[in-house]
Specification:
The protein is of the alpha/beta class. The protein has one domain: Cytosolic phospholipase A2 catalytic domain. The chain is about 30% helix and about 20% strand. The chain contains 7 helices and 11 strands. Strands 1, 2, 5, 6, 8, 9, 10 and 11 form an 8-stranded mixed beta sheet that branches. A hairpin with a 4-residue loop joins β5 and β6. α1 runs antiparallel to α3. The longest helix has 18 residues. The chain is globular and about 45 Å long. It comes from Mariniradius saccharolyticus AK6.
Length: about 270
Amino acid sequence: MSSDLKIGIALSGGGVRGVAHLGVLKALNESGIFPNRFSGSSAGAIAAALYCSGHTPEEILEIILKTNYFKFLKPAISWTGILKMDLVEELYRKYLTSNSFESLQIPLSVTATDVRRAKAVYFSEGELIKPLMASSCIPGMFDPILIDNHYYIDGGVLNNLPVEPLDGVCDVVIGVNCNHLPVEHNIKNIKSLIERSIIMTMNYNVYSRKHVCDYFIEPQGLARYGVFDTKKAKDIFQAGYETAVKFVEDNPSILELKSKTGKKKIK
């Protein structure tokens, strides 16, 4: 294979579990593999946007560790959510200063769910931050995000592994899922039952798209971490890194995707 192939990577949503994507990217980069087109949903979209804007996986991890995400949320006076994401825009602007897809070093597609039309929508041009907020807008927790008279919620609701923007465009597609569920012999309470059921639903729409991927990387057991369990971010990063290192060892054909320049490929 030629190292000049168009290499696409789709990153799933999963709250703080999405930090695993950064570990995966670090391992791929160390192996000389630099995807040149990204697609992401929810946490995967956020990780992808920061990476595509020029931040390294380690720098993004540090941003997450030093940011108190909850101080950027405020109560919502609404029947559609208990929190508003308005102040999150301020946080994004700090690290995505140009606020446009066109300003990114690597092309990116962000997935969100249009509530009224009940369909997944893929954003890839124009304003970047609003689609990112929409893509990670957990239904019931956050007020939906209004973009061009349409209300959007978390992209993972309908498509938690958005390979569609890459399929037919890229020569090789890599999928990364950060919500692997281990076998559970004892459901302790209603909270764990609901959480597990939600993740099962998300994984179903991930696995239904797995066949599109030439390579599929899935760190094991990450679903045991909560959506906002930022204290475990380093552990999650390491889990993604170690899984990807082993994946490369077990699948040496992926090394045929190595970049000639040994750095990120840009548009």
